[in-house]
Amino acid sequence: MNILEYENYQEKKSHGDVAFPYTTYPCSIPLDFASVPVHWHDEMEIIYIKKGRGLITVDLKQYVVSAGSILFIIPGQLHSIEQYELESMEYENIIFKLDILISKQTDACSSDYFQPLLDGRLSIPTLFEPDHPYYAPIAACVDGADEVCKTYPKAYELAIKAQLFLMFHILFSQCCTAEAPLKNRKSLEKMKLIIKYVENNYMEKISIADMAKEAGLSQSHFMKFFKNTMGTSFIDYLNDYRLTMVSRLLVSSESSILDIAAESGFDNLSYFNRMFKKRFGMTPREYRKKFMEN
Protein backbone atom coordinates (compact mmCIF):
# COMPACT_ATOMS: atom_id res chain seq x y z
CA MET A 1 0.00 0.00 0.00
CA ASN A 2 1.47 3.39 -0.91
CA ILE A 3 0.58 6.58 0.93
CA LEU A 4 -2.02 7.74 -1.58
CA GLU A 5 -3.84 4.43 -1.34
CA TYR A 6 -3.64 4.81 2.43
CA GLU A 7 -5.11 8.30 2.34
CA ASN A 8 -7.84 7.30 -0.08
CA TYR A 9 -9.20 4.74 2.38
CA GLN A 10 -10.75 7.80 4.03
CA GLU A 11 -12.36 9.16 0.89
CA LYS A 12 -16.08 9.75 1.42
CA LYS A 13 -16.85 11.13 -2.03
CA SER A 14 -14.62 10.82 -5.04
CA HIS A 15 -15.40 12.57 -8.30
CA GLY A 16 -11.83 12.70 -9.54
CA ASP A 17 -11.18 10.77 -12.72
CA VAL A 18 -8.64 10.61 -15.51
CA ALA A 19 -10.44 13.28 -17.52
CA PHE A 20 -10.82 15.66 -14.56
CA PRO A 21 -8.53 14.69 -11.65
CA TYR A 22 -10.00 16.82 -8.86
CA THR A 23 -10.94 15.15 -5.57
CA THR A 24 -12.25 16.54 -2.30
CA TYR A 25 -13.01 14.63 0.88
CA PRO A 26 -13.41 15.27 4.62
CA CYS A 27 -11.06 13.75 7.21
CA SER A 28 -10.70 13.73 10.97
CA ILE A 29 -7.69 13.13 13.19
CA PRO A 30 -7.64 11.01 15.30
CA LEU A 31 -11.16 9.71 14.59
CA ASP A 32 -10.46 8.54 11.02
CA PHE A 33 -6.78 7.76 11.58
CA ALA A 34 -4.00 8.59 13.99
CA SER A 35 -1.86 10.50 11.49
CA VAL A 36 -0.81 10.82 7.86
CA PRO A 37 2.91 9.97 7.69
CA VAL A 38 5.34 12.26 5.88
CA HIS A 39 4.98 11.70 2.14
CA TRP A 40 4.94 13.49 -1.21
CA HIS A 41 3.05 13.20 -4.48
CA ASP A 42 2.71 14.86 -7.87
CA GLU A 43 -0.67 16.45 -7.20
CA MET A 44 -1.46 19.88 -5.75
CA GLU A 45 -3.07 19.63 -2.32
CA ILE A 46 -5.12 22.13 -0.33
CA ILE A 47 -5.79 21.38 3.33
CA TYR A 48 -8.68 23.40 4.78
CA ILE A 49 -9.11 23.12 8.57
CA LYS A 50 -12.75 23.08 9.64
CA LYS A 51 -12.67 22.35 13.39
CA GLY A 52 -10.14 21.84 16.16
CA ARG A 53 -6.36 22.03 15.97
CA GLY A 54 -3.64 19.89 14.48
CA LEU A 55 -0.01 19.78 13.43
CA ILE A 56 0.98 19.87 9.76
CA THR A 57 4.56 19.66 8.56
CA VAL A 58 5.56 20.92 5.10
CA ASP A 59 9.15 20.46 3.88
CA LEU A 60 10.15 19.77 7.48
CA LYS A 61 8.63 23.01 8.83
CA GLN A 62 5.89 22.56 11.42
CA TYR A 63 2.65 24.53 11.53
CA VAL A 64 0.11 24.40 14.36
CA VAL A 65 -3.18 24.97 12.55
CA SER A 66 -6.75 25.59 13.68
CA ALA A 67 -10.24 26.17 12.29
CA GLY A 68 -10.03 28.39 9.20
CA SER A 69 -6.39 27.67 8.36
CA ILE A 70 -5.74 26.95 4.66
CA LEU A 71 -2.50 25.30 3.55
CA PHE A 72 -1.15 24.91 0.02
CA ILE A 73 1.05 21.89 -0.69
CA ILE A 74 2.99 22.21 -3.96
CA PRO A 75 3.56 19.01 -5.97
CA GLY A 76 6.66 17.28 -4.65
CA GLN A 77 6.64 18.89 -1.19
CA LEU A 78 7.10 16.62 1.80
CA HIS A 79 4.18 16.87 4.20
CA SER A 80 2.50 15.09 7.09
CA ILE A 81 -0.59 15.56 9.29
CA GLU A 82 -0.65 14.73 12.99
CA GLN A 83 -2.71 15.14 16.12
CA TYR A 84 -1.71 18.18 18.16
CA GLU A 85 -1.36 17.24 21.82
CA LEU A 86 -4.69 15.56 22.70
CA GLU A 87 -6.88 17.71 20.44
CA SER A 88 -8.91 16.52 17.46
CA MET A 89 -9.06 18.15 14.03
CA GLU A 90 -11.54 18.00 11.18
CA TYR A 91 -10.27 19.11 7.79
CA GLU A 92 -11.01 18.99 4.10
CA ASN A 93 -8.50 17.55 1.66
CA ILE A 94 -8.58 18.88 -1.91
CA ILE A 95 -6.22 17.10 -4.30
CA PHE A 96 -5.92 17.85 -8.01
CA LYS A 97 -3.46 17.76 -10.86
CA LEU A 98 -2.25 21.15 -12.01
CA ASP A 99 -2.51 19.73 -15.53
CA ILE A 100 -6.21 20.63 -15.53
CA LEU A 101 -5.15 24.31 -15.53
CA ILE A 102 -2.15 24.10 -17.86
CA SER A 103 -2.60 24.30 -21.61
CA LYS A 104 -1.04 21.52 -23.68
CA GLN A 105 0.38 24.24 -25.89
CA THR A 106 2.74 26.38 -23.82
CA ASP A 107 1.26 29.78 -22.99
CA ALA A 108 2.02 32.62 -20.56
CA CYS A 109 0.04 30.95 -17.75
CA SER A 110 2.32 27.95 -17.94
CA SER A 111 5.68 29.61 -18.70
CA ASP A 112 5.31 32.61 -16.38
CA TYR A 113 3.47 31.12 -13.41
CA PHE A 114 2.76 27.40 -13.10
CA GLN A 115 6.08 26.04 -14.37
CA PRO A 116 8.18 28.43 -12.24
CA LEU A 117 6.04 27.39 -9.25
CA LEU A 118 6.73 23.71 -9.94
CA ASP A 119 10.44 24.41 -10.52
CA GLY A 120 10.80 26.34 -7.26
CA ARG A 121 11.57 29.65 -8.99
CA LEU A 122 8.35 31.17 -7.65
CA SER A 123 6.91 30.63 -4.19
CA ILE A 124 3.47 31.06 -2.64
CA PRO A 125 2.86 31.05 1.13
CA THR A 126 2.18 27.63 2.59
CA LEU A 127 -0.21 28.84 5.30
CA PHE A 128 -3.04 31.36 5.14
CA GLU A 129 -4.75 32.33 8.39
CA PRO A 130 -7.95 34.41 8.65
CA ASP A 131 -5.95 37.54 9.51
CA HIS A 132 -3.95 37.39 6.25
CA PRO A 133 -4.82 40.36 3.93
CA TYR A 134 -5.83 38.05 1.08
CA TYR A 135 -7.34 35.23 3.11
CA ALA A 136 -10.96 36.18 2.43
CA PRO A 137 -10.84 36.11 -1.41
CA ILE A 138 -8.74 32.92 -1.39
CA ALA A 139 -11.12 31.20 1.03
CA ALA A 140 -14.05 32.38 -1.12
CA CYS A 141 -12.56 30.54 -4.12
CA VAL A 142 -12.12 27.32 -2.16
CA ASP A 143 -15.63 27.65 -0.73
CA GLY A 144 -16.97 28.32 -4.22
CA ALA A 145 -15.41 25.12 -5.56
CA ASP A 146 -16.81 23.23 -2.57
CA GLU A 147 -20.27 24.57 -3.29
CA VAL A 148 -20.06 23.21 -6.84
CA CYS A 149 -18.98 19.83 -5.45
CA LYS A 150 -22.15 19.55 -3.36
CA THR A 151 -24.30 18.87 -6.43
CA TYR A 152 -21.89 18.49 -9.39
CA PRO A 153 -24.20 20.30 -11.84
CA LYS A 154 -23.79 20.09 -15.60
CA ALA A 155 -20.43 21.57 -16.68
CA TYR A 156 -19.23 21.54 -13.06
CA GLU A 157 -15.67 21.09 -14.33
CA LEU A 158 -15.72 24.59 -15.82
CA ALA A 159 -17.06 26.08 -12.58
CA ILE A 160 -14.31 24.42 -10.52
CA LYS A 161 -11.60 25.51 -12.96
CA ALA A 162 -12.97 29.06 -12.82
CA GLN A 163 -12.59 29.11 -9.04
CA LEU A 164 -9.09 27.62 -9.23
CA PHE A 165 -7.94 30.12 -11.85
CA LEU A 166 -9.29 33.00 -9.76
CA MET A 167 -7.56 31.59 -6.67
CA PHE A 168 -4.22 31.29 -8.48
CA HIS A 169 -4.66 34.79 -9.92
CA ILE A 170 -4.81 36.11 -6.36
CA LEU A 171 -1.88 33.96 -5.25
CA PHE A 172 0.37 34.89 -8.17
CA SER A 173 -0.55 38.58 -8.33
CA GLN A 174 -0.63 39.37 -4.61
CA CYS A 175 1.19 36.69 -2.61
CA CYS A 176 3.89 35.28 -4.88
CA THR A 177 7.63 35.91 -4.50
CA ALA A 178 10.68 34.92 -6.52
CA GLU A 179 12.66 32.37 -4.58
CA ALA A 180 16.27 31.27 -4.83
CA PRO A 181 16.78 27.51 -4.63
CA LEU A 182 16.68 26.33 -1.03
CA LYS A 183 20.04 25.45 0.45
CA ASN A 184 18.52 22.25 1.78
CA ARG A 185 16.80 21.29 -1.49
CA LYS A 186 19.32 18.50 -2.10
CA SER A 187 18.61 17.15 1.37
CA LEU A 188 14.88 17.25 0.72
CA GLU A 189 15.28 15.42 -2.59
CA LYS A 190 17.40 12.73 -0.94
CA MET A 191 14.84 12.43 1.86
CA LYS A 192 12.06 12.00 -0.71
CA LEU A 193 13.90 9.02 -2.17
CA ILE A 194 14.23 7.48 1.29
CA ILE A 195 10.58 8.06 2.16
CA LYS A 196 9.37 6.66 -1.15
CA TYR A 197 11.51 3.57 -0.59
CA VAL A 198 9.90 3.06 2.82
CA GLU A 199 6.40 3.54 1.33
CA ASN A 200 7.05 0.84 -1.25
CA ASN A 201 8.95 -1.62 0.96
CA TYR A 202 7.88 -1.14 4.60
CA MET A 203 6.23 -4.57 4.62
CA GLU A 204 9.61 -6.20 3.94
CA LYS A 205 12.76 -6.33 6.04
CA ILE A 206 14.64 -3.02 5.70
CA SER A 207 18.12 -2.60 7.13
CA ILE A 208 20.29 0.44 7.66
CA ALA A 209 22.60 -1.05 5.02
CA ASP A 210 19.70 -1.15 2.53
CA MET A 211 18.82 2.48 3.14
CA ALA A 212 22.41 3.71 3.09
CA LYS A 213 22.86 2.07 -0.30
CA GLU A 214 19.59 3.60 -1.56
CA ALA A 215 20.71 7.06 -0.42
CA GLY A 216 24.25 6.65 -1.73
CA LEU A 217 25.75 7.18 1.73
CA SER A 218 27.80 5.17 4.19
CA GLN A 219 25.78 3.63 7.02
CA SER A 220 27.12 6.06 9.63
CA HIS A 221 26.56 9.05 7.34
CA PHE A 222 23.04 7.87 6.53
CA MET A 223 22.07 7.53 10.20
CA LYS A 224 23.46 10.98 10.97
CA PHE A 225 21.80 12.54 7.90
CA PHE A 226 18.40 11.05 8.72
CA LYS A 227 18.55 12.05 12.40
CA ASN A 228 19.62 15.61 11.58
CA THR A 229 16.98 16.02 8.86
CA MET A 230 13.96 14.30 10.42
CA GLY A 231 14.72 14.76 14.11
CA THR A 232 14.38 11.04 14.82
CA SER A 233 16.29 7.86 14.08
CA PHE A 234 15.50 5.88 10.94
CA ILE A 235 14.46 2.80 12.96
CA ASP A 236 12.03 4.88 15.04
CA TYR A 237 10.65 6.46 11.86
CA LEU A 238 10.23 3.07 10.18
CA ASN A 239 8.47 1.59 13.21
CA ASP A 240 6.20 4.63 13.45
CA TYR A 241 5.31 4.36 9.76
CA ARG A 242 4.53 0.66 10.10
CA LEU A 243 2.41 1.27 13.21
CA THR A 244 0.44 3.94 11.36
CA MET A 245 -0.31 1.46 8.59
CA VAL A 246 -1.28 -1.16 11.17
CA SER A 247 -3.69 1.27 12.84
CA ARG A 248 -5.34 1.93 9.48
CA LEU A 249 -5.68 -1.77 8.64
CA LEU A 250 -7.11 -2.60 12.06
CA VAL A 251 -10.21 -0.53 11.28
CA SER A 252 -10.44 -1.06 7.50
CA SER A 253 -9.67 -4.78 7.31
CA GLU A 254 -11.08 -7.93 8.88
CA SER A 255 -7.68 -9.65 8.81
CA SER A 256 -6.32 -11.04 12.06
CA ILE A 257 -3.99 -8.90 14.15
CA LEU A 258 -1.21 -11.41 13.51
CA ASP A 259 -1.67 -11.14 9.74
CA ILE A 260 -1.85 -7.34 9.85
CA ALA A 261 1.37 -7.17 11.87
CA ALA A 262 3.12 -9.46 9.41
CA GLU A 263 1.77 -7.54 6.40
CA SER A 264 3.16 -4.34 7.91
CA GLY A 265 6.69 -5.60 8.41
CA PHE A 266 6.58 -6.86 12.02
CA ASP A 267 7.85 -10.44 12.25
CA ASN A 268 7.97 -10.55 16.07
CA LEU A 269 4.51 -10.41 17.63
CA SER A 270 5.59 -9.60 21.19
CA TYR A 271 7.81 -6.75 19.94
CA PHE A 272 4.94 -5.51 17.78
CA ASN A 273 2.50 -5.54 20.71
CA ARG A 274 4.93 -3.59 22.90
CA MET A 275 5.56 -0.99 20.20
CA PHE A 276 1.85 -0.61 19.44
CA LYS A 277 0.87 -0.10 23.08
CA LYS A 278 3.70 2.40 23.54
CA ARG A 279 2.48 4.40 20.52
CA PHE A 280 -1.30 4.25 21.04
CA GLY A 281 -1.65 3.56 24.76
CA MET A 282 -3.69 0.40 24.19
CA THR A 283 -3.38 -3.04 22.64
CA PRO A 284 -4.19 -3.62 18.96
CA ARG A 285 -7.35 -5.52 19.99
CA GLU A 286 -8.49 -2.63 22.19
CA TYR A 287 -7.70 -0.15 19.40
CA ARG A 288 -9.79 -2.10 16.88
CA LYS A 289 -12.69 -2.43 19.30
CA LYS A 290 -12.63 1.29 20.15
CA PHE A 291 -12.74 2.41 16.53
CA MET A 292 -15.31 -0.16 15.48
CA GLU A 293 -17.59 1.08 18.27
CA ASN A 294 -17.12 4.67 17.09
UniProtKB/TrEMBL annotation:
Pfam families from the UniProt entry: AraC_binding, HTH_18
UniProt cross-references to Gene3D superfamilies, sorted A to Z: Homeodomain-like (1.10.10.60), Jelly Rolls (2.60.120.10)
Domain of life according to the entry: Bacteria
Keywords noted in UniProt: DNA-binding, Transcription, Transcription regulation
Domain spans labelled HTH araC/xylS-type: 192-290
InterPro entries given in the database record: AraC-bd (IPR003313), Homeodomain-like_sf (IPR009057), HTH-like (IPR037923), HTH_AraC (IPR018060), HTH_AraC-typ_CS (IPR018062), RmlC-like_jellyroll (IPR014710), Tscrpt_reg_AraC-type_HTH (IPR020449)
Protein name per Swiss-Prot or TrEMBL: Helix-turn-helix transcriptional regulator
